[in-house]
Amino acid sequence: MNLEAQVETLKSAIRDVPDFPRPGIVFKDITTLLQDPVLFRRTVDLLVVLAGDRPVDRIVAIESRGFLLGGALAHRLGAGLVLVRKPGKLPWKTVSASYELEYGEDSVEMHEDALGAGDRVLIVDDVIATGGTARAVGELTEGLGATIGAYLFLAELTFLNGRKQLAGHEILSLIRY
Ligand code: AMP
What we know:
This protein has 177 residues and is an alpha/beta fold. It has five helices and nine strands. It has helices spanning 3-13, 31-34, 37-51, 65-77, 132-143; strands at residues 15-18, 26-29, 58-62, 80-84, 94-100, 105-111, 120-128, 147-156, 171-176. Strand 1 (15-18) and strand 2 (26-29) form a beta hairpin. Helix 1 (3-13) crosses helix 3 and helix 3 (37-51) packs across helix 4 (65-77). The protein is globular. The structure holds adenosine monophosphate. Residues 25-28, 62, 65, 125-134, 162 line the site of adenosine monophosphate.
C-alpha cells in the first residue's frame, strides 16, 4: 500500500460525531482509530515518518488525546515527554498561557521546569482546529527557552485556517479535512 492509501485508511477510521460537544461542531473521534491494533501502529509509524530526521529532545503533548500520540512518539523517537494540561491539573509550579475561545478564554499549563534553553521540541496534538491551543502551547515552550522544531498533528481542519496562528513555524499534519 502506498503512503497516500495508508493515510486514507487512518482517515476512514476516524469517526465524525456531529453536534458534539456543541451544536454545529463535527467532532473528529479518534477512539475508533486507536482501538484498531493495525491502525494505531500505522498512525504512530506515519507520525514518525512525518517527524523526519529533525533532532528532538522533548515531545510536548497537549491534553488529552495529544498524550496518547505524543507518548508513543516520544518512545519511538527516544525523546522526553512533556505534558500540557488544563489549569489546576499539574502538581508542581507551572507557567500558563491563555487563548481565545468562541466565547471567553481558556488556558493551558506546563511545569516551569519541563523545558529549558536549548531543548528542541515537537508540539503534538490529535487535531488542530482554530490553532489557539497550539499557539498558547508554543508560547509556553518558547517562554521556557526551548525551540519549536515543528508542530505535528494527526489531523488538520484546514477550513478553520489554524495555521495562520502558528505562522513562522513548520506545521506537519497527516490527515486534512
Ligand atoms: P483549537 O485550539 O481550536 O485548534 O482546538 C484544538 C484542540 O481542541 C485540540 O486539543 C483538539 O483535540 C480539540 N478539537 C477542536 N476541534 C475539534 C474537533 N472538531 N474534533 C476533535 N477535536 C477537536
